Amino acid sequence: MSAHAHAHAASHSHGLVHDSVKRSRQGLRAVGLALLILALTAAAQAAVFVATGSVALLADLIHNAGDAATALPLGAAFLLRSERAERWAGFAVVVAIFFSACVAGYEAVDRLLNPDAPEKLGALAAAGIVGFVGNWIAAVVRSRAGRRIDSPALIADGDHARADALVSLGVVASAGAVAIGLDLADPVIALAITLLILRITWASFGTVRGGGHTH
């Protein structure tokens, strides 16, 4: 190999390493920021759940906590700078979403069979708004980073958080319905949230399965 060719190859190799490291750092930054936002959101909702006993809020809380936990496999994939690991992390996100749907559905059915209307409805509505804002910000962070570094897993997680923001509005609807005397609205809305989570599961699976190339 000539000196010129060797220098060109070395320069090209260093460029690839630089791009890989840059992509890893951007991915880790987005995952870490979203984790912080969702952890704070879940903590605030947990405090309100203890005071209100709303299963609609519990469904949202479980989902937000599970969503925050998906940062672990995604963060590990970006740290390893592996597209294969990143794709598998995307599938781990899908499994976490599905699991949260199962737990939320179980709690909703249990409350339908054993009715118990939530209390402190003002705090309940506020918790729903907190969930909406937290998820929307996390969605923006993930989606922008995912498009910037071309990460199907991160884009799927962003779409997931955006849908979760709308799901959180169901908690606000639950507080309003119970306030006008529709006590069973809380578990019914929790079931509706469960169905939405299942829909999110399927959409996220399609995004992860169809995007990216493994090496």
Order of helices and strands: HHHHHHH
Count of runs of 4 or more consecutive helical residues = 7
CATH topology: Alpha-lytic protease prodomain-like
Summed up, the domain count is 1
The oligomeric state is: single chain
The share of residues in extended strands comes to under 5%
State the main characteristics.
215 residues, single chain, Alpha-lytic protease prodomain-like, 7 helices, mainly alpha
Provide a descriptive summary of the structure in words.
There is one protein chain. This protein is mainly alpha-helical and 215 residues long. It has a single domain (27-210), classed as Alpha-lytic protease prodomain-like, CATH 1.20.1510. Helix content is 88%, strand content 0%. The protein has helices at residues 3-52, 55-69, 71-80, 83-113, 121-149, 152-179, 185-210. 44% of the residues are buried. The model is unreliable at 5-17 (pLDDT under 50).
Secondary structure elements and pairings:
Blueprint: H1 3-52, H2 55-69, H3 71-80, H4 83-113, H5 121-149, H6 152-179, H7 185-210
Helix pairs in contact: 1-2, 1-3, 1-5, 2-4, 2-5, 2-6, 2-7, 3-4, 4-6, 4-7, 5-6, 6-7
